[in-house]
Amino acid sequence: MSKAEVTLLDCWVSPFCMRVKIALEEKGVAYESQAEDLFGGKSELLLTSNPHGKVPVLLHNEKPVSESAIIVAYIDETWTASSFLPPCAYGRAQARFWADYIDKKVFDAGKGICLGKGEEVEVAKKDFIEVIKTLEKTLGDKDFFGGDTFGFVDIIGIAMTSWFPAYEKYGSFKLEDDCPKFSAWIKRSSERESVAKVIPEAEKVLGFMAMFRKMMGVEE
Ligand code: GS8
């Protein structure tokens, strides 16, 4: 087992892992990334740390924390120089609601676009654009979901956008046409040092998705 104070059981292409890395970067926490081979064979450490057997797992002084949104909240509560969440209970409840909305909606719709067949892709694409329109409405004219500063919902959301180039490619659409304000938020957030450091190049994600589609039998 790694003896670093903070270790992340990681996978470079997982948006859930990216969230955790962005949160750690935002707090200036040094960590060691331990890559997991999700297709070849997971480590014993992953299997014993998370009953779901999924990355990310954060090991803090060897104690595991699982589920990306829970990990981001844990990081926020552990390294407290600044906070990802607003001070009032209502603001925190709202942030948690929208983070949960992103979790329940964005990934599944995106998966339908990349892995669906025929009409399924059109249905998933329509669903995806509706979900993003809903998020755009709650963003409104603010710079970030919580207002002027990059916070909890931004961290949860921006990591998911790392797969958007693949959704646009396989769904044959440009998100900016339907959701200009949300697209501007992606651009604004992507310029942050923490995000720029963590989010992989679009080409690399597209390469992964092409491989994954073959693996899942979507294309030859
Ligand atoms: C999702 C993690 C997840 O799906 C979270 O942490 O927020 N709700 C969880 N991890 C995937 C990689 S990204 O698609 C994973 O570890 N899959 C391996 C498996 O399911 O066996």
Give the fraction of residues assigned to helices.
55-70%
Number of strands: 4
- Small-molecule binders: S-Hydroxy-Glutathione
| CATH top-level class of the largest domain | Mainly Alpha
The tally of structural domains comes to: 2
Q: What would the CATH topology of the largest domain be?
A: Glutathione S-transferase Yfyf (Class Pi), Chain A, domain 2
Largest sheet: 4 strands, mixed
Radius of gyration: 17 Å
State the distance separating the first and last CA atoms.
40 Å
Which structural class should the secondary elements be placed in? alpha+beta
Q: Strand arrangement, largest sheet?
A: 2-1-3-4
Strand and helix layout:
Layout: E1 6-10, H1 15-27, E2 32-35, H2 44-49, E3 57-60, E4 63-66, H3 68-78, H4 89-115, H5 119-139, H6 152-160, H7 164-171, H8 175-178, H9 180-190, H10 193-198, H11 202-215
Parallel strand pairs: 1-2
Antiparallel strand pairs: 1-3, 3-4
Helix pairs in contact: 1-3, 1-6, 4-5, 4-6, 4-7
This protein binds S-Hydroxy-Glutathione.
S-Hydroxy-Glutathione (GS8) binds at residues 11, 14, 16, 38, 53-56, 67-69.
